[in-house]
Amino acid sequence: MITTTPEPINAAAASPSRRALRRFRANKIGLFALGMVCVLGLLALTFFILDRLGIPWPMDPNATNLERKLMPPNSVNWLGTDNLGRDVFSRLLNGAYISLTVGFVAVFVSLFIGVTVGSIAGYFGKWVDNLIMRAVDAIMCFPTFFLILTAVALVGPSILNIIVVIGLVSWTGTARLVRAEFLTLRESAYVQAARALGQRGPKIIFRHILPNAAAPILVTAVLGVPEAILAEAGLSFLGFGVQPPQATWGNIIADGKTYILDAWWLILFPGLAILLAALSFYLTGDALRQAVETRSERQ
Amino acid sequence: MPGMSRVRVLIVGIPLLLAAVTAVALWTVARVSVDKKNEMYIGSIGEPTTLNPIQAADSVSGSVTGVVFNGLLKYNAGLEIVGDLASEWDLGQRSTFFFGTDEEAIMAAANLEAGLVDRTALNLQRYSVEGNRLMLELSLPGVSDSRKLAEKFGVPAIPVRTVSITAPKPLGEALAEFAATDPAGRVVRVWTNGNLGELVYLGNEEETLGRLRVWLAERFGEEGLVIEPVLAPEFLAEPEVTFRLHEGVRWHDGAPFTSRDVKFTYDAIMDDRVASPRKPDYELVLSVETPDEQTVRVVYRRPFSPALESWMMSILPAHLLADVPPDQWPLAFNRAPVGTGPFKFAEWKTNQFVRVARNDDYFKGRPHLDSIVFRSLPDPLTLRLAFETRQVDFWSADPWAVGSFRKDERFTLFTSPSNSYNYVGWNLRRPMFQDLRVRQALAHAVNIDQMIRYVLYGYGTQSTGIFTPEMWFFNPDVQPLAYDPEKAKQLLDAAGWVPGPDGVRVKDGKRFAFTLITNNGNVIRSDIATLVQENLRAVGIDVTVEMYEWAVFLKRFVNQGEFDAVVLGWALGQGFDQFQIWHSTQTEPERLNMVGYQSEPADRLLESIREEFDRAEIIRQCGELQQLIYNDQPYLFLFVPEGTSVMWKDAFRVKRPGPDATWIDEPVTMTKAGWSHYLEWFYRPEYAQEAVNNP
Amino acid sequence: MSQPILQVRDLCIDFVLEDRTIEAVKGASFDLASGETLAIVGESGSGKSVTALALTRLLPVPPAKIKRGEILFQGANVMQMDAARLRKLRGGKIAYIFQEPSTSLNPVYTVRTQIGEAIRLHRPDVTDVDAEIVRWLDAVGIVDPAARMHDYPHQLSGGMQQRVMIAMALACQPDVLVADEPTTALDVTIQAQIMELLGSLKERFGMSVILITHNFGIVSGFAARVLVMYRGRIVEQGPTEEILRHPQHPYTRALIDCIPRLGSKDKRLKTIDHAAIPAA
Amino acid sequence: MTAFIIRRLLISVVLLFFISLISFFIITLTPGSPYPWGELNPKVSEDVKRIFREKFHLDRPLHEQYGFIMRDLFTGELRSIKDERPVLQKIAERLPATLVLNLGALALSLSFGLMLGIYGARYAGRPPDVITSILAFVFIALPGFWVSYLLAIGLVSYAAVPILGTHTIGVTFGNGLEVFLDRWWHVMLPASILAIGGIAVQSRFIRASMIETLREDYIRTARAKGLDENAVFYRHALRNSIRPLITGIGMLLPALIGGAVIIENIFAYPGMGRLGYEAVLERDYPTLVALNFVTAALVLVGNLLADVLYAVVDPRVRLE
């Protein structure tokens, strides 16, 4: 480590957020991934609106057409049809909305719990921290999968429930992260100063600590989206997911798995969609992490 | 720096080594020839729960115990009942009529003698008088013959009444003691099993029941004591089956098979500690007697026509189990059973396979195969993967794949109608489904032909009610309701459901909207649900489809009657008794009449079918019942699917004993009892020499 | 004076960061004679450590970039050496002692492993490595060296750690020892001990020493010659006594004024007026 | 050290208690009931159902049921509702297969993760690193069940390679080596898919940790000593960077056991994941509680092991 940092020659160093932005802009892969995320989001939104307006395109995703069932990709059904003759391409586009919504909202739920629990543990420390962290340990010991399975069976498989359950089981990482940030920031000069000025707990948390922990939390959030998408896909795959006929990427695969040896297109394309979406989010998240990191890896 | 380079070598070397060994392993596995042994590989979805046949209820356990154990009776290839461990059997019944005085009994006998034209027509063998009782001995159980004979008595017999007793504690000798105190000898029969009892008596209901209640309450307390009348004939009708057992049958451990084993098996099924799901089949048994080692006589308390089939139940070895408390069985016997069947249990690797090996001393001759391996696989897809790599020899083909397998020369296909049907059950507790016109409209609105063509790929027929065409008591005259959406609309209009502003029909301000539920993971059912949804939308009915995990589906919705409509199927046995599914007493939560069907004529038929042993009469009554229920449309009866099993063509042939000590060598063929009926006579053609030398 | 063992000519080093470039060293030139002790003095960021690291091309490239100039060690151009020769040079010819002994020693290896590694590398003829380690630990004044050498760095105090660093540097018998702020991280009393130790070792083994420091106080009495760096430039160089007595550059004066003296109240670096700095 | 382990074990016991409590209440609150013969079996009478409920204390209030289950669990008397066999015996039966599978997956994740992570750190910021990074994210983003199916179809349809179970059944092998390779293949196939995510995560961790370490002062010291890059890298940087690898052992275990559920089903592998999945579907409460208990215990042991390993790798870490 170069301890004697030479002084900069040109103007004063840019603000951290501006520097992060500049770093992010320099990251070609990250930009591309972010572009993908935006395209996906726009697509999902467009098709959601089209669906709500009653203008299904290219076809009604839920219209069955038994004469055309299990057709391989062709000029009418670009990605083939499923066991009821529904157009896979239309279902994929329509499913994007649900899959992405599940991803985002589940992350929101998980962040909300994780940040709250982590803040409480990190701010109060001592036995509160100890108690909460042991509880977090206990939850982390669970094979998450059984937890999700039983929880979904318990509350029933609606979109909202799935979102909540995925959020409920995935907050531990965030909680740990936030707590660690708190433990560091709690001792920092400006928090000490704020405390010396007589500011109260919540104010310190919301005004001084949380904004400074925002960057890593943001990164966790972006990286959490694909995990939630994958979790929904896994659940739907086992038949615990979003109810038919509503298409999601996961339950298109789930419906298709029975025909797997006879109709490969039923699982190939939705799988690729999941892969692509998850990958875009992961790469965006990673680029974001590199950008906000206080020390750039390449230096 | 040697340490450093070692680290480097390890870091690169370990993953490369792992990858390399895996690649070599793949190469080895891919190149291994299908060097099959003289074994059969059967794949099944799921693991057997137990290999104790009286405790098992799942089909996987059943397929294993089927080759390890024998029942007293079995079906032959034509689905007729033939002897298995029993070489022959006799049916009979003693019907006892009670009269006010001894003289009346004698008079009735005399009138009977006078009126008899043809004894055999009514199966009467002999009759006798004992005090005030007239006893008829018949060669066929049932109530109708006895009633016809009773018409000739000319003297009115005193009707008998039957009550069932449920006590909070085991009844023990209480009922017998009560009978002994009866001053007028009006208690004619008592029966006790644990907490349950039955009492048959003559005369004044109020008086006897009152005394019984007081007597029992003194001993057991009022709480939990239930005394209620039972539907039973008005005379004592006690059917009897006598089995003559095969000589020289030995258990796999060498011990001889005797009547004691049969008696023990019956006792075990009735033992509460065993919790056998088969107990209801034997609850009407009055006694099982073993006059000698080769004879078993079973007496029933009243006619129960499914009785004979119940003795297809596998028989357990008394010498191994009689001294072991039932809670120890799961630890030893249930994992390593000893039977009398063509194959002996060999090994059970959990979640992998159960292997049974040939029983060289099988009493019907030595089977050809060395062993049978029952592989347990998690789902239909893995089963198919196993079949395609020849890890199992058979596969129940998915309907959409049958076509391509039929074209392929390497396979033999066995297609047969199943004993099952799929339906949409309407919850008759819901007002909207209570109108018959609505239910008929629903039936007319759904295109079942299309469903069969595209969901089953043509492998199925439209269902016309509670029985399937393969059953001998099926009524072929029931005409299915045709697909006719216009008629459906008319019927709905007539029922007051008129199209509303959004196209959905409305009546009294309520939209015709309901939720159709089914379990997830079954593509056929989810396809049905989606198509029903589509078809009904066309006639102005708004259907929401929901799918739940099986356990949730049953517990929360079906068993509680908490649903509007449900897609389900019944897999029926060969029996005609459908009391549990349709009788009006079976509509409570957790019972099987979950749609809440209640019909007096149907109740009467369901009750009388149980007491009928006459084939023609059973056909008539079942036919009537089938028509009756179909007319009521409590279900939308959809279709009876056909099952197709695929076998690698070169895998097996059959060489089985034919008539006159000859051997019939033939390809595996479908019988009424399925392709696997002659399982013990299957052989692999590569091992033909051995099979030929075998006899 | 004999031929200089080390010659630095017009050394220019830039740090290329993602958004800007920093010129860390701007045309530094100086010589080091055999057996001579040279001090390079300057405040943080003046380019003195960068110069020291550049001597054996230890600067991480990128972000550092040697724009021009050459470094000659015994006449050989360090800039053009291949990797093998460079490795011989590092440790074998030019050895370093760093500012922060607690982080400069690898925490997961014992003292013995770390010194032994250096000896095996540069002095393959040594057969009894352990004995050699003990000898050097003893030479830097570590009590019970045979036992101490099995310690991990975190088990030693700061002063002891720095002694180990010195032993590790000397164990390869280098021609030049570069001590980069060897005492900054230590207590004042330990500082004196370490400087005293360095002084005596220098006498004993007769090697050249480059002392990098911001503290004129430790320079006097240790180094014969001083080089003052300010903002990447050598602003002044000459014999120590001369510079101390007649500093020419205002920056030098400011540095000298920082030397703690009895009775002085103000120890802070005096702010210098930019206008007063003569152009290089 | 001993004191540390004892304290950790005590905490573990408390944790295990809570885990059993949570898992019991979640599973019992879930609709469904554990009848081993399927509830739509017309032959089963109410009477039999009642006897059965009494036998498994299902007629008692929940807290008493929990009491019975815990009592039986510790006396080893706990029986599965499905087949009435001791639950511990059922778990023990599957434990070897599960351990082999998960250790296989762990070995793959760690070894490949280490290799790729080091490779990435070595060429940080340059094309090889960019490629391995993207590859790692592709790995993380792959839905495991999807890959399994594609792989399964490919292997079965195009190469007719047996993939199910722990070994090829019904085939006579030439020699012991072939038997071994057959078993190896049957473990490594599901293990590789299980490991895909782990490899990616581990390689990212190792890479980041390695890059961090390379900025340390003692790395400069090592270079200043004249050590070559490989020595600096593998000797001085590596050992200081493998903390995440060890943390990975503790973190991967629960993920693996959970993730194994789908994989075990696809490859018909006789492990604990399949037992657990079947138990969830059948509402086999005792088996589930015991299974969660055993899994959690395994994970806790894994974590403890990781902590002990920290101390072995880094002399600065003291277990207190």
Mean pLDDT of chain C: 78
**What's the Cα radius of gyration of chain B?**
30 Å
What is the general shape of chain C? globular
Oligomer: heterotetramer
Distance between the termini of chain C: 27 Å
In total, the number of strands of chain C is 10
Main pleated sheet of chain B: 8 strands, mixed
Task: Give me the count of strands of chain B.
Answer: 30
Strand content of chain B: 25-35%
Describe the fold and architecture.
The complex is a heterotetramer of chains A (299), B (695), C (280) and D (320). By secondary structure, chain A is mainly α. Chain A has one domain (20-297): MetI-like (MetI-like fold, Orthogonal Bundle). In chain A, 70% of the residues lie in helices and 0% in strands. Chain A is built from eleven helices and no strands. The radius of gyration of chain A is 23 Å and the shape is elongated. Residues 1-13 and 295-299 of chain A have low confidence and may be disordered. With 695 residues, chain B is of the alpha+beta class. In chain B, strands 17, 18, 19, 20, 24, 25, 26 and 27 form an eight-stranded mixed beta sheet that branches. A six-stranded antiparallel beta sheet of chain B has the order 5-6-4-11-13-12. In chain B, strands 1-16-15-14 form a four-stranded mixed beta sheet. Chain D has 320 residues and is mainly alpha-helical. Chain D has helices at residues 2-29, 46-55, 62-75, 87-122, 127-141, 144-159, 176-214, 217-224, 229-241, 243-266, 272-282, 285-313. In chain D, helix 6 packs across helix 10. Chain D is globular. In chain D, 56% of the residues are buried.
